[in-house]
Every structure is written in C-alpha cells, then in structure tokens.
Amino acid sequence: MGGAAIACLRLLNTLNQTEGIKATMLVQEKKRDNPNVKAIAETWLQKKLAFERFVRERLYFKFQEKDKEIRFAFSPANSGIDISEHPLVKEADIIHLHWINFGFLSLKSLEKLFKLNKPIVWTLHDMWAFTGGCHHSGDCENYQISCGNCVQYLKTPSSTDLSNKVWQRKNSIFDYSLRLRSGNDTVIVGCSQWLSNRAKKSSLLKDFTVKAIPNPLDINLFLPQNKAEARTKLGLPIDKKLILFVAAKVSVIWKGFSYFQASLEILKAQNSHNQEIELVVLGESDAEMIEKLPFKAHALGRVSDTNQIVSIYSAADVFVTSSIQENLPNTIMEAMACGTPAVGFEVGGIPEMIENYKNGFLAKYKSAESLAEGMKWILFEANHKDLSNNARQKVLDNYSEKVVIEQYLGVYRNLVAQVS
C-alpha cells in the first residue's frame, strides 16, 4: 500500500505489456486483486506467521531504539522467510528485488537468494540496502565507511552496536557476490540520481554496477482534468485557491507535517487573500491535527480509487510536500502529471523533479518560511498555465512508462547476455 509497492506494481504492469516478458510479483501478503501478484502468506496460518515475523523484528528493535518516533525507520532484518526454493524464484531468469523489509526477507534470506547465482536487479526505494539498518541516514555519512555509533536511531550507540552488526552481515553477503559472482550479474538501481549517487559512495555497494532509473507512471491515466468539473465531482469549492497535502499517514514524522502547519501560519500572516485559501488533505489524518490548521481543511481520508485520486490532483492549485526524507516521491510525479505544480523541500530526489520557478518551487530544507514563499508565489504571482504545462511535460519526458521501461529492458538484456 506504500509508495514502493505502488511503484513496483506500475513497473510490473508495464513489463507484462511488453512483448517477450513475463513478470510476477512475489509478496509477503497480497492486498490487491492482481493475477500477476502472488503471496507467500495465503492461508490463515501463513498470514499469522507473517505477522509474527513482523512483530518479532519490531520487538527486537524496540529494546534498542532511541525513541518510539523512529521505530519503523530502522530495520535489522533479523526475521524473514526463505523464498529461494519457491517455484517462481526457481523458474525466474532474473530476480528483481524491491522493498523487502518488515519480516519479509531477512539478511539470511537475502544471502540464500544471492547464492542461487541468478542475475539480480535490486531497485532501491530508500537507503536501507547500503546502511546498517536505517532507511534514511539524514546527515549521517557513516555508511560510506562502515556503520556504527548510530546516535540517530539507537539508544546505546557504540562502535559495535546493532548498526555495525547489520553492516558487517551485509558486507559479508555483498562480498560473496563480488568474489564468486564477479558482481557482473548484480545491478543496483536507484529510483533517483540522488539515491544512486549515495549508493555509489557507500562502502557496501560502491563496487557494484549502480544505475539511476525513475519509477514509471501511466501518463494516460494521470492526466489533467477540468479543474471546475473535478471540484464539483469531489464537492470542493470552485472559487477558492486549493492547497493539496498528501501522505499515506500524515502524522509520520518524516512527512514533516509540523513544517507544513508552520508554513501555513506564515502564509496567513503575510497574505491579504486568506479568505481565498482552503486546504485539501489526502491520506490518514488526525482530526485534532486538521483542526489546528489556520485555513479551512477538507480531510478526504484514504482514497484507493485512482480516478478519484486524479480528480483530487487536478482540483488543486498547488501540491505541497513537507517531507524531510525522500527519494523520488510518487505524489509529486502524480501531481505534476495532472498539471498541478508542486512545492517541496530541496532534499533527496525532489530537486530532480521540481525545476525552480519553471514547474514548481524548491523550498530551502526545513524552512517553513521558504515553503510559505513557494505557496504564495504559485497561488498569486506565477503564470499558472505555464507552470501547469511545464509540470506535465516534465513527467512526459522523464517518467512515462515508455521512457522508464526501455531503461530496465536494457539492464535485463545485458544481464541475460552475460550469463548465457
């Protein structure tokens, strides 16, 4: 249900529309009715065991975590299931890994996959593959040498702490791949140039082939709708400036909701058109948090219908993300494909998507003032038609399924040629 899963599903669907390709997605537990997605946990007992693996890993980390706010931001991968003998794995010509944490694959599971000597592509949706367990390292660069002394995530950091133990274990697995597999049949893919550059600098992945390939988007599905019609359909006001905020769970700390709230307070204090502004919040949100916002807010909750999501993006005048840790957000891509300019912090892969003053506004990192400046500029000063056209064109040129799939096919062909 998260961003990595959505991106993976989009790639899966695109691959299966490509001649000569048969792709199947193997997951821990299936949530959608897709015939090309197969679940490890199908029976009641298997689902209970999957949940038990998740709980066991979380409890293991709980006693070492710095505080509960970062509980799901670090994965020791000590609990998982062996899929190396699964029929889909055994028959595959290529194994393509995506996000494998939270009790699905452990480090031991990964080691068994690497020992199959099959070509492996690993698409990174965060930094976990090359750190000592954190999904985003923030300002820490220990991963470039070796992890340890993890003050950001661990209660008792030391040179031999949990992050160092996880790093050592990964180093052993990747070293095996380089020595016995020559590293030629393993390709690491970052969804953004930013993430790929970090992987190349990491001590764990620096000797592998690392490429940058973005997530694909169906540009025939995500496309601009008539703004007035979209608002009428959703029951939103036609005569207001609508600011859209999207998060699967608004309260998650790295979504930076506090910066968004502060920026709205600044916008209200500095703007003479406050009566024109209203908010739209898409995703799981707390009623108390929404009530504290300085403008009237329309909390839409979780929406799974894609056509309705497209209408929501099209209805907004500006999309705002205040995330303080990001790779290549699907939400920015989706908003821009619908012709809605975006405002976001200059962090992770966001600067690769938002071209300042051309298709949106890049705000200074963790600056609520800069975020407010961006919203004000787009809502009241910019040429909205030009911004909208440029946002859509950015997606067409860089993130369409046709553009992305050709890059992955090139990776697959090279791998198959090397092992044949």
Describe the structure.
The structure is a single chain. With 420 residues, the protein is α/β, with parallel strands linked by helices. The protein folds into two domains: 3-216 and 401-419, Rossmann fold (3-Layer(aba) Sandwich); 227-398, Glycogen Phosphorylase B (Rossmann fold). The protein is built from 15 helices and twelve strands. It has helices at 3-15, 44-62, 87-91, 107-114, 162-180, 193-201, 227-234, 257-270, 287-291, 306-315, 330-337, 350-353, 368-380, 384-398, 401-419; strands spanning 25-29, 37-41, 95-97, 120-124, 186-190, 209-212, 241-249, 277-284, 297-301, 318-321, 342-345, 360-363. Helix 4 (107-114) links the parallel strand 3 and strand 4.
Q: Secondary-structure element order, as H and E? A: HEEHHEHEHEHEHEHEHEHEHEHEHHH
Question: Which second-level CATH architecture of the largest domain applies?
Answer: 3-Layer(aba) Sandwich
Radius of gyration: 22 Å
Mean pLDDT: 91
Major sheet strand order: 9-8-7-10-11-12
In CATH, the topology of the largest domain is named Rossmann fold
Largest sheet: 6 strands, parallel
Q: Residue ranges: pLDDT <50 for 5 or more in a row?
A: none
Percent range for helical residues?
Answer: 40-55%
Proportion in β-strands: 5-15%
**Total tally of structural domains:** 2
So what's the overall shape? globular
Structural class computed from helices and strand pairing: alpha/beta
CATH class term of the largest domain: Alpha Beta
> What is the overall number of helices?
15
